[in-house]
Amino acid sequence: MAITPPSFQKDAIPTRKGWTHPRTGEILVGGSISQKNIDEYMNVPVIEVETIVEPDIVIDVEDEVDWEMEEIDLDSMTKTQLIETAKEWEVEIDPKATKSEIKELLEEELF
């Protein structure tokens, strides 16, 4: 369905809320206008989107990846670094805990 501007303001702009004044943005005629109709009126080109589906790739982790744990020296870290490490590894800690308490908790959880 083609839309047309109000007869008293031929340069009105269509929006989702109705027809608006081109300079002030004031709504001249209220009402719902679909985005499709607005795009058609404003001559917005329609872009076709192609959906590409990638096939699932299965990797046998035991055969393909040689896992090595990164060596971490908790003793040399500051309290702030320990808290950040806990956040990265999704270990819940109390930020008010002492450095040694945080270190002990990380050691229990990770090693």
List the SSEs and their pairings.
Layout: E1 13-15, E2 18-20, E3 27-30, H1 35-41, H2 61-64, H3 79-88, H4 99-110
Antiparallel strand pairs: 1-2, 2-3
Helix pairs in contact: 3-4
Care to describe what's here?
This protein is of the alpha+beta class. The chain folds into two domains: 1-45, no CATH class; 70-110. The protein contains four helices and three strands; from the N terminus they run E-E-E-H-H-H-H. It has helices at residues 35-41, 61-64, 79-88, 99-110; strands spanning 13-15, 18-20, 27-30. Strand 1 and strand 2 (18-20) form a beta hairpin. Helix 3 (79-88) packs parallel to helix 4. The longest helix has 12 residues, at 99-110.
Reported for the largest beta sheet, the result is: 3 strands, antiparallel
Query: How do the strands of the widest beta sheet line up side by side?
Result: 1-2-3
Q: Are there runs of 5+ residues with pLDDT below 50, and where?
A: none
Apparent shape = elongated
C-alpha-based Rg, rounded: 31 Å
Count of alpha/pi helices: 4
Mean pLDDT: 84
Structural class: alpha+beta
Strand content: 5-15%
Helix fraction bin: 25-40%
Domain count, please report it.
Answer: 2
